Amino acid sequence: MVSVTLENISVDLGRRPVLRGVSATMAAGEMIGIIGPNGAGKSTLVRAMLGLSPLSGGSVAIDGRPLAALHPRQVARRIAYLPQGQTLHWPLGVERLVALGRLPHLAPMSRIGEEDRRLIAEAMERADVLALRDRTATHLSGGERARVLLARALAVGAAGLIADEPLASLDPGHQIDVMELLAREARQGAMVVAVLHDLTMAARYCDRLLLIDRGALVADGPPAQVLTAERLRQVYGIGARIETQGDGPPFVIPTDRIRVEGLI
């Protein structure tokens, strides 16, 4: 089990403030979606959680320990990270690529053991890429490559998983597969954080949403509380129809573009 606590964190890239005073706690057993318009600071937020984007203010703690006191290998063992838009430059086999997820657990010059091989095969099965294990990763389609990279993250065997835009390049069927996989990881006790653009997918599968706008956290709560028509108008500059079926999650249907002063 793992938890992450953000206390009033800020991040500047160059002289430009990207995050401003964000506070939140993310715990085991939660499926958390980070949403917001392009350029809001979503990817910077998850990178800051892992120590990959330096803070200009505030603090991050993992399991109550300051992030600054943890070695990057310790962080990688606790929280697996799937960045967005990864490009593969080397013609690695799929199984070998997924095996790279075990690196945080291996000593220098050591070899993969039987337990590592079991976890690699299990990760490929969960990501539905076992049939691709003998293929060359650079020869895969975009959707196949995305699922293989997710398998690599799962192979870490970490108590937490952060996925930045895990649905990019996937067809609708595999989008559902990935979201169900992530939600299942959370139900089994993992802390799962996903940066998402599809608001209906976020509402359907996430227990909680963090809405980021221009570097600030403007809403944090269950999807039905975060995804209101007025908030979507203010943050995204869109009109939207929000529908629910009984006690189920909301469906968000954008209807038109709205000019909001200071937004567009």
UniProtKB/TrEMBL annotation:
CDD domains named among the record's database cross-references: ABC_Iron-Siderophores_B12_Hemin
Start and end residues of each ABC transporter domain: 4-239
Alphabetical list of InterPro entries matching this protein: AAA+_ATPase, ABC_transporter-like_ATP-bd, ABC_transporter-like_CS, P-loop_NTPase
Pfam family name, one: ABC_tran
Keywords for this protein: ATP-binding, Nucleotide-binding, Translocase, Transport
Listed GO MF terms: ATP binding; ATP hydrolysis activity
PANTHER family: HEMIN IMPORT ATP-BINDING PROTEIN HMUV
Membership in a protein family: Belongs to the ABC transporter superfamily.
UniProt function note: Part of the ABC transporter complex HmuTUV involved in hemin import. Responsible for energy coupling to the transport system.
Protein name, UniProt field: Iron complex transport system ATP-binding protein
